[in-house]
Amino acid sequence: MYFIFEIAFSSPKQYIANLIRAYAKQQNMQMEVLQTPDKIVLTFEKEDEKLESFLLGLEEVLPASLFLGKGKHYFSDERPAVLPETKPDIPLNIAPCPTCQKEMFDVSSRRYYYPFTSCNHCGSQHPFLTKYPYERANTTMKFIVPCSDCKEELKSNALRQDYSLISCIECGIGLRMVDKEVEHMALNKGDYRKLFEVSGRAIASGKSVLMKTMHGYRKFFKAKKSTSNILLMASANGFNQHLMMVEQEFNALLSIERPMLRVATKSDELKELYGSSVLVKYPDDGMTMLLAKEILSAGLEYIAYVECDSDEEADFLVDFDMPINPQRDTKLFINQDRKLFVSGERICYPTKVYQPKNRVTLAHDLACVDVDGKKIIDSIELFDKVTTDEFYVLESEEFESGHSNEVRFKQYEASMLSVLAEHNSVGKKAIGVHFDGSLHFLYYNGKNVIDAVPPIPFESDNLWEKIATLREGSDRLVENYKKAYPKVWERLDNLKGDMDIFEVTAIALGLEDESLEGISAEALSFLGKGGLQIDTRVKDNRFDNYAFLTSIMSYQLGDVENAYMCYSIYESFGDYIGEIVPQLIEKVDTKTVVLTGETFANQSLYARIERTLGQYKPLMNVNLPIGKESGVYGALYL
Ligand SMILES: [Zn+2]
Ligand SMILES: [Zn+2]
After folding, report:
1. DSSP codes joined into one string, 395-413
2. pLDDT computed for residue 538 by the predictor
3. Distance, CA 258 to ligand 2 centroid (Å)?
4. Which of 12, 148, 202, 226 has the highest CB neighbour number within 10 Å of its CB?
């Protein structure tokens, strides 16, 4: 009779299963760990007291994770199949695990206030990698020789067994702090702590600190009015006090993956600073985490930061000499129990994929390349030259491969295939909607993706001329608009031709953040019921950008408030999509619907789509972003 403990786990990432294995080893616990596509299964020989204390201890060392779900246990006569343990071969880029965090705040440890604390199952490993395969010799840590304590740990500490990036204050990366005149080097525990303490106090007193973190340079300061700030919440308690969140959002922000989330504001002070919503982050790497600790000690619950370059102006600089390769941070979207990665590289990549074709793919600087018989998707700079039968490159990518069999592909094709591949549906007919600024309706016949209803191309130059000739009476609207909003009229009269429809809309509405994100944020603050119908076309079924703009302008002249308008923009898109998709479904005889593109990460649009297309249970990316970064994977299936 075996005792089986199962935990739902929705990702192929192995760090949680590997951490459980290492912990079992450390505790001398006889057990086996199996990971399937949707769960981690722990098998124990028998149920006894030792098991009970093991499970309690496990709870302490396991981090919260985006991918972890509910657990259950049962007895079984059969032993679940066991797979051989594999050495971690792709570097992680997540927050420190509970055990590593404990070390960072334990004054007796060799890693007290050491921001580069990590183990086989956690931390910022990827930023140090210079090329595959992942081993110390291929990272910027190669010049650091581990001290004798670290060397000993490689054998004795189950969590850091053979860990490529092992280091501590004694042997590791030095930190320095620079103000206008003086440079302070941190040499021992006391110095490391002091450096973060001084930074925290400086910020609390209104100064800014430019800090090199494992995710690139960040400028930290006391939160101030701005749309481009990211709010850094230093304490978990602050979330409930200042932000309006559902449980799923709270859990996601605190998960070891530490995604970025747009959340509605609650406290008056945050409403005053950021309006109805703000991008939020919980400390996600050693540097930011140690700073946050000192921010709390200095009496602040949150601060703000911007991602920036090393030459950004600031009162203080905290720096280290080790070169790093930061990844683009990842935004998450949550609607009830559905979590979608919106955009970015971190958390989702690197990843291993299983696809037998001898093909290299490249899109948005991410490549899928074979390394020692395993296909890995990661930043192209990290791979050595390889030979391949075919080379698939995104059409907009500036990359000279010189390969005789180079194929250029379109974003929407690859996006659609990435979803079908994630759902094991490649080769089956499907309807697709790709919405990434512009909107495409697609049909996949099992072989090729066809742009079935393309948008009418949009050019933002000579805008007024195009609007005035749209239909009869449109010229009058242009005149009235010029009288009512002379400044906006002037700006729209001088646009360059390459702006997207949402930027132009945001300008017309006078939003501070002149982008889709700005419209999306404004829509979040609308609390009423919809009903405002924004025109999306003039003739045939194609989305007409000029009709859309004209409709918005006439509502503006009718004094409709911005939040209502922005909400209605998404609602109207939802209705439009909800109308076209069933028409296409009828024509081609399939019930499979695929949604791709970042624009879907919007509460009002998402809710509307649920209502109009919910019956088809539309497929979306699961482990990869719904945005452009999934293309590199989808291209494997074109
Ligand atoms: Zn760890
Ligand atoms: Zn050391």
Report:
1. TT-------TTEEEE-HHH
2. 67
3. 27
4. 202
Q: Which residues on adjacent β-strands are paired with residue 362?
A: 367, 393
Ligand nearest to the CA of 94: 1
In a domain, 63, yes or no: yes
What spacing in Å lies between the alpha carbon of 583 and ligand 2's midpoint? 65
**Higher-confidence position of 117 and 48:** 117
Which ligand does the CA of 153 lie closest to?
Answer: 2
| Range 61-80 average pLDDT | 93
pLDDT over 70 at 387, yes or no: yes
Amino acid at 110: R
Domain assignment present for 596? yes
Q: Going by C-beta distance under 8 Å and a sequence separation of 6 or more, which residues neighbour residue 108?
A: none
202 contacts 298 by C-beta, under 8 angstroms: no
Spacing, Cα 98 to ligand 1 middle (Å) = 7
Q: Separation of 111 CA from ligand 2 center, angstroms?
A: 9
Query: Does 192 share its domain with 300?
Result: yes
pLDDT digits (tens, 9 = 90+) for 430-439: 999 999 988 8
- How far, in Å, from the CA of 547 to the mean position of ligand 1? 55
Rounded mean pLDDT, 284-309: 97
Most confident of 530-534, 535-539, 620-624: 620-624
What is the distance between the alpha carbons of residues 284 and 324, in angstroms, rounded to a whole number?
A: 16
Return the sign of the alpha-carbon dihedral for residues 137, 141, 147, 153: negative
Compute the distance from residue 115 Cα to the ligand 2 centre, in Å.
13
Do 236 and 307 form a contact (C-beta atoms < 8 A)?
Answer: no
For residue 51, what is the DSSP state? H
pLDDT at 152 over 90: yes
pLDDT tens readout for residues 130-149:
999 999 999 999 999 999 99
pLDDT at 609 over 70: yes
Give CA separation, 420 vs 447, 492, 594, 630, in Å: 12, 40, 8, 11
Domain of 528?
426-618
d(C-alpha 139, C-alpha 214), whole Å: 14
CA–centroid distance, 278 to ligand 1, in Å, is: 30
Task: Identify whether 364 is part of a domain.
Answer: no
Quick one: 114 and 182 in the same domain?
no
**Average pLDDT for 164-193:** 92
pLDDT at 240: 92
Q: What is the pLDDT of residues 9-19, one digit of tens each?
A: 999 999 999 99
Rounded CA gap, 229 and 224, in Å?
8
Measured in Å, residue 13 CA sits from the centre of ligand 1 at 15
Q: Domain containing 501 — which CATH number? A: 3.30.420.40
Buried b (16+ CB within 10 A) or exposed e, 280-293: bbbbbbbbbbbbbb
Q: What is the pTM of this model?
A: 0.93
Bridge partner list, 333: 340
Contact of 363 with 399, CB cutoff 8 Å: no
The predicted model gives 27-34 an average pLDDT of 93
What separation in angstroms does the CA of 617 have from each of 253, 354, 450, 620? 27, 26, 22, 10
Q: CA separation (Å) from 324 to 212, 287, 365?
A: 9, 13, 17
Cα 91 to averaged position of ligand 1 atoms, centre (Å): 13
Of the ligands numbered here, which is closest to the C-alpha atom of 16?
Answer: 1
Ligand 2 centroid from CA 560, angstroms: 63
Taking the C-alpha atoms of residue 4 and residue 324, their distance in angstroms, rounded to an integer, is 42
Both 144 and 68 in one domain: the answer is no
Residue 588: its pLDDT value, please?
92
Same domain, residue pair 59 and 193: no
Q: Are residues 124 and 222 in the same domain?
A: no
